[in-house]
Amino acid sequence: MNRRELDPESSPSARFGQLLRTLRDERGWTQDELAARAGCSGAHISAVETGRRSPTRRFAASVDRALGTGDRFERLSQAVRHTALIEGFPEYVALEAQATEIRLYEVGVIPGLLQTPEYAATLEADAVRREAITPEQADERVELVVRRQNSLARSPSPLITAVLDEGCIRRPMGAPSAMDAQFARLLEFAERPNTVLQVAPFSMGARRPFSLPITVLTMPDRSLVSYAESAHRGHLERESASVLPILAAYHQLQAEAHSQAASVALIERLRKGFK
């Protein structure tokens, strides 16, 4: 019987599911047997154990009673409900930390791997103002930006290619000093030996192959993974037949975008205008 294995460090939901499976196995119970004790279905237990369904507080409390674990699962379920990360993103972050090549395209805002802490904090503060997330979730997101950037400081360094839609660098974010620091971060990024930075100008028009952000990872075994997200969830694609057309479109995007030298010159001009 094939069982989907979860990385308990990837997300609170994965941690909950892995612990539930471990304690159930220790008792020698099937999913249906635990379900009978918890007052739900075996299919529900399976969905939670594999991360396909998030545990509610009521479900967690019933599991605690069935397993005799006090309020352990109820406390874990709070972390699941309060997480600031959309479904699928923690799994992507784990893959990003292993990738040998990262190709990303972003629209509207500077991507997390290139953000300064001040820029990230300003971005999340607006989400708090709109009541889209809590202040605690905003802090979690900013901390993750820093952790993701730190994970790239490894040897050998991954090759990172970043193509930014022109709107990313023209959209003001916070005080002029914050934008100045963000422009400085972009220019520093472009100088690294393992990076490429390009701006996709508005003038590309219909020749722009992507309308939403996209990332393509090359893993150590040379396999390809793409990642894209909607407002509520992220989607990982591992099938080469599906990822290769995305990679081809990315190469077309690079060919149409400004060169790195022209992109750097544009950023430097915009930086002067923000001072």
Report what the structure shows:
α2 crosses α3 (42-49) and α4 (57-67) runs antiparallel to α5. A hairpin with a 5-residue loop joins β4 (214-218) and β5. The model has no long low-confidence stretch (mean pLDDT 90). The chain has 2 domains: 12-82, 434 Repressor (Amino-terminal Domain); 89-274, Endonuclease, Chain A. The protein is 52% helix and 12% strand. It contains 12 helices and 6 strands. The chain has a 6-stranded mixed beta sheet with strand order 3-2-1-4-5-6, with helices on both faces. The protein is α/β, with parallel strands linked by helices. It has helices at residues 12-26, 31-38, 42-49, 57-67, 72-82, 89-96, 117-129, 135-151, 166-170, 176-190, 240-256, 260-274, and strands at 101-106, 159-165, 195-200, 214-218, 224-229, 234-237.
Characteristics:
DUF5753; 275 residues; 12 helices; alpha/beta; six-stranded mixed beta sheet; Helix-turn-helix transcriptional regulator; 434 Repressor (Amino-terminal Domain); Endonuclease, Chain A; elongated; Cro/C1-type_HTH; 52% helix
What is this structure's SSE topology?
Layout: H1 12-26, H2 31-38, H3 42-49, H4 57-67, H5 72-82, H6 89-96, E1 101-106, H7 117-129, H8 135-151, E2 159-165, H9 166-170, H10 176-190, E3 195-200, E4 214-218, E5 224-229, E6 234-237, H11 240-256, H12 260-274
Parallel strand pairs: 1-2, 2-3
Antiparallel strand pairs: 1-4, 4-5, 5-6
Helix pairs in contact: 1-5, 2-3, 4-5, 7-8, 10-12
